[in-house]
Design a protein that fits this description.
Elements lengths: L6 H4 L10 H9 L3 E4 L11 H9 L14 H12 L10 E4 L1 H13 L5 E6 L5 H7 L3 E6 L11 H5 L6 E7 L11 H14 L2 E5 L25 E6 L12 E4 L3 H13 L5 H11 L4 H22 L14 E5 L5 H10 L6 E4 L1 E2 L13 E5 L4 H25 L1
Parallel strand pairs: 1-10, 3-4, 3-5, 5-6, 6-7
Antiparallel strand pairs: 2-8, 7-8, 9-12, 11-12
Helix pairs in contact: 3-10, 4-10, 5-9, 11-13
Length: 403
Amino acid sequence: MELELSQRIGKLKTSPIRKLIPYGEEATRKGKIIHHLNIGQPDIKTPLEFYDAVRNYFEPVLKYANSAGTPELINEIKNYYSRRKMNYSIDDILVTSGGVEGISFALTAICDVGDEILIPEPYYANYNSFFNTLEINVKAVTTYAETGFHLPSMEEFEKKITPRTRAIMLSNPSNPTGTVYRKEEIEMIAQISKKHNLYIISDEVYREFVYGENKAISFGTFKDIEDRVILIDSISKRYSACGSRIGCVISKNKKLIQSIYKLCQARLCLPTLEMIGATALYKIDDSYLEEVRKEYEKRRNVLYNELREIEGVIVRESEGAFYSVVKFPVKDAEKFAIWLLEEFEINGETVMITPVEGFYKTKGAGRDEIRISYAIDELKITQTMAILKEGLKRYLKEESKRY
């Protein structure tokens, strides 16, 4: 008799970001060179301060660290926020295994089975792992490429609110869209949270990466909602240290933080050496972050100009993070993405893109959209866009024969 797995694990779906990896691996086995536009892995070198701090650390016994995080790291996170006019005490901050653990812990602390989260779509698809595992229902408020994925009216949000709604959740700047929400949008979310007594879970890991005249306004700057704001942060993208898995969850709601601390204790602690390295990163002068921001802005400009030259593509200039969601003149972006890997190449090269349909809760939405990451250098962006442009031209010819 076959052993059964839980219904809970059966609800988890493959990440749309990594769903195409088997196709990419097969293409690589056949000798193709794959250019990755599908994943937010920065190519900026991790600052040497991280490695130097780890090398210079020595204790005869590598002991358990505090479940909340090392005092030195928490203090540096506190200082980082202080420089941004957000004053937190060390008791407001818990260090987590990347931003994702902070999200998981926050949702566990505020939601019971069957509760609801209100979220603008498209949204970071890995959030669904937590929603499904914790049996939280998602109420999605759709945003559209034609309006730069900015938020709809307050009425559209309020239509989705029920007695089971516990929080509004969003990332700003947005993964996957690259949208940076305006002051009036942030104020609207704050107003809704007060009116309906909801938490706000704000994923702000891309805070520094904002371009042009745009400004990423943190919910942490709103004094009148500080009891309901839960900030999620990470060094992964800010300092190009994805593999360190160091993030944090922050709130001035003492009862909430004390509850999340229980979850931190349950998983014992984070790796001491990673926290030593992260502490050194937070000490780096903010001029480093400005240089990185300028680099991504240059890449953003190159990508936008290249995409505008592709016939039939609908694209708005990305405002932040290092992603752009683009409408392509195809019926099914996933089929197009698979075709690029299986059947297309130029001189042995092709590209891997991310279909955006899996970033929507609404069935069928985003079927003609792809997410492109510009966490690669300018020359590679130009080269991959030439490959993508030619790939689209050939695919549309084949598609026209099929339909």
